[in-house]
């Protein structure tokens, strides 16, 4: 057992050195008191079952990069393995921990876990410092400013933060003293595991398009911030959901894992916009970052935000169950080429454009399949590199017209929507290669192609590519009626509640 005391920084969704105040607090404490410093990351034993393979690869790459960056300042990352609530109390005793720093997260599971750890720390006199550093604004302050409730519209949110000064970000570059190195500093057992070591066969994954880590995140941010005119002209609705290369920044996986600070992104955007004519929220790039802030405030202030039942902002809709349709949707086998291309891109690469997410989320829920947004959110959690508890739930509620957006009668067509930006169907040809040789005329509706055309293209519908699982033209009209009825019931229930 070590006699010296230890300061721990517990990394979770803050996998970076820049703009990491909690980490700097830990370093200062260890330096000033000549204590050991242990920056840790906890890997749960069943991580392979909790995180999809692509995201797990992104996470391990990010941890590897974090270790490299910590070593540059004479420290390292200590990977510890086990369930945090069991493992940390044990380790804190063994290491004689007296000071713990971490960032505030809002994912309901993390909140529960933190309550247990903080209770233990209180009992053992371990001083805990928590910093809010995953968002630009302090979401609790925004809620307080709104008299304790969450802003239900984006414009309301913007008005609440309009005159908030956003603090500067900090850098951590100073060398840490050798005195802070614990006796087990060199131990191999704390190294970042490989994919194989966590049970993933890397050869089964496709090429890595978006490598994880702070270094990559900062590089990507700089590339985009150097394209000043592009940033100033950015209008989200005019970006393409089906371009072969992304038409937006793909900073989301880096921001979600905390490899890139949202606050740094904010300040860089401000610098670019300064003195230039630029687009405005909600469509500008700054507007996109503000959507993130909006959903964070909503998620932080709403109980059961990731569920329909017990969630006060969520309209209760009697969704149906259909395992066969859900599976077909998740695997990109609905028989609608645009929907299938999007779901296959998601599964292969871990990222899809925001409007592509609109398309498939609407299709699964109110548009076509009438399956709960909670089911879709689970599939996204598995596949997305940028999975984020509040953004995923918030956007799914939006798309299913369960919260924040109420024009349920505006449904995306799986045929017409994609054509607007990709008439020839190049995107479909890439991700649904069975249809590669189809004439453009039929690429969005292969079932309409005469059998002879299907045979010449080498793909017969119903044999080489699935038949449509529903008929959009019919089913979306029925679903609009069901939404209408659900809205009525909810309205009546609310009126009754008000009367009581
Ligand atoms: C059903 C559904 C589920 C989603 N789930 C997630 C999720 O789990 N994690 C996630 O990060 N985003 C999610 N989004 C939001 C959005 O699609 C992605 O943030 C965006 O497409 C990421 O690409 P980008 O980095 O190129 O975005 P850009 O357009 O370049 O925007 C820059 C940044 O702004 C933020 N942002 C952009 N759009 C939104 C939005 N609508 N809501 C919140 N933040 C936004 C992201 O941090 C993004 O990186 C979801 C959207 C839908 C419709």
Automatic annotation (TrEMBL):
Annotated site, Electron transfer via tryptophanyl radical, chain positions: 319, 373, 396
Annotated residues for binding of FAD: 248-252, 288-295, 386-388
Alphabetized UniProt keyword annotations: FAD, Flavoprotein, Nucleotide-binding
SUPFAM superfamilies per record: Cryptochrome/photolyase FAD-binding domain, Cryptochrome/photolyase, N-terminal domain
Co-factor: note: Binds 1 FAD per subunit.
Biological process per Gene Ontology, one example term: circadian regulation of gene expression
GO cellular component: cytoplasm; nucleus
Residue intervals of the Photolyase/cryptochrome alpha/beta domain: 5-136
Needed cofactors: FAD
Single GO MF descriptor: DNA binding
Name of the protein this chain belongs to: Photolyase/cryptochrome alpha/beta domain-containing protein
Protein species of origin: Euphydryas editha
Lineage: Eukaryota, Metazoa, Ecdysozoa, Arthropoda, Hexapoda
